[in-house]
Specification:
It is a single chain. The protein has 444 residues and is mainly alpha-helical. The chain folds into three domains: 1-182, Up-down Bundle (Growth Hormone, Chain: A); 195-244; 247-435, Up-down Bundle (Growth Hormone, Chain: A), CATH 1.20.1250.20. 81% of the residues lie in helices and 0% in strands. The chain has helices at 6-38, 42-58, 60-70, 72-92, 96-124, 128-157, 162-165, 167-180, 197-215, 222-241, 249-252, 255-283, 290-314, 320-324, 327-339, 346-374, 380-407, 414-443. Helix 5 (96-124) packs across helix 17. The two termini are 23 Å apart.
Length: 444
Amino acid sequence: MRSDHQIPALIACSLAYGLVLMDPGLISISLGAIERDLALSGTNLRHLVSMYNVALASCLILAGSLCDHIDSKRALLVGVALYAGGSTMFSLSEDLSLLLLARAGQGVGASLLIPCSLSLLNDIFQSPREKMKAIGWWGGFGSIAMALSPLCAGLLLSHVDWATLFYLNVVLSVIILILLAPLPMTRRGRDVAPFDAVTHCLCVTFTGGLVILLTDRHSQSYWLWAFVLLALLMIVIRESRGSVKVSPRPLVFKPSLMACYFAGTVINFSFYGVLFYFSLSLARDASVTPISTALALLPGTCVLVVGYMITGRYASPSRFSLFLSAGGLITLGLMIFTLFNLGSDLGFLMAGLALVSLGLALITPIVTGLVLAQATSEVVGVASGVFNTCRQFGVCFGIAIFFTAHDAEDGLGLIPLFWLTIFLVVMAVGGTSWVSSLTREQTV
């Protein structure tokens, strides 16, 4: 790739990732206006939020495989088009069924944006140092979008209606398409695994059903559990006996990549679990106003931006171990939550959340870079899809488990949960440190 393609590609990929992380802020701020305009119930609003997350998580592995088979640029273009189409449909629709269909379209498009933007960066930036800087800016822009989207949505809603707000996604999508247009297509190696549509459909069924079971506390259907387990069993049978597989298992599930998948799951589990616990504690405290809640969360989100920028500026393969030591910040932040509660000192909890946020921002780009370094070119899309699926499961597990512990009588399960999370973080950092040493040896 020519060097003059790098800046447009980085901007396009960062905007694509920003679209994915903007959605929670846009939809959460818009729910009140949507409820008033369309007379929807609380259950319907919850479905509008969860439909996007279910579609996103369930299609990530499929999206990664498509990226390997049809080229990262083509797959990214498809993802942007789907996301823009879903946003347009959501803005124009007034029927609940069409709204849910539009949210599903957005989620499917978003599932293509994450692994395909990473794969495109991996293709365009050649040296490990350049890749780490690109990943740092990619993640940093995503965190900026996540942090600023609620504020921007609130300001825009004071002047326009909620339907117009979602046209912002369309405008950004057009900009991404313009930036991607001059980039050349990437040729994939001939040893890419054949595309197995049946197994991919089973993967979508399994992951989607599991996400529903994790995120919807009212989904206690034994039929759904049986459906999910049956899909898993059929995946195992087809992968073990079939001649056509979703991916070459030795390449996608080798120990070094498995360590990265585990780390991605644990880091997101710890961050989103603590974030949800802190937010829920504030929301249920009658003495805390919504503005105070937003201000209490602001330092944690701002630290995310700073951490990603630091990683993008200074990270290199020789410094991976240094950045991975930021796992100590996560453990320290979690320890603060074991010592203090909302009634004792809010400032200590804000500091704890900021430490966990900074640790996530310093480690996540490194682990992402290790996935790209350890995955061969023919499976980089699938590996990225698996990695981000694991991260989404970490989000779902963290919210579900911390919610359950928070709702337990007297919150007695929270302290052991925090200590278990600390143990998992230490294990994850140890595993990725080993992968970092392997990567450093391979680049010498």
